[in-house]
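We now fix the convention by which a protein and its fold are recorded. These numbers are not coordinates but entries in a learned vocabulary of local backbone shapes. A record is reproduced here so that you can trace the correspondence yourselves:
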Amino acid sequence: MVFERKMLTYGDPDEEEDAPAEEEEEEEEEEEMVDPLETIRAKCEQTEHCVHLKERLEVCEARVGSRSSTEEECTEELFDFLHARDHCVAHKLFHNVK
């Protein structure tokens, strides 16, 4: 009970009001940060080679999705697309690292 009175008596109400505002500013700063990996991945996915492989993956997924029972999977197409995208990213990513 004594501790509670000290907090109520000696607490500065201005500090309590400023704390949420500071937290909001920190959240805004965090939201503005963009992961360079995601940006480079998006750019690499637009290259001709990656677009072609992504189309093959989407065709496979549509084919597999249209069948009610199939053992076919699109693993090969997925790995081909991810490999091409990551190969592109590997050449560009480390130029952005400080």
Observations:
- The mean pLDDT is 80.
- Residues 40 and 92 are 7 Å apart (CA to CA).
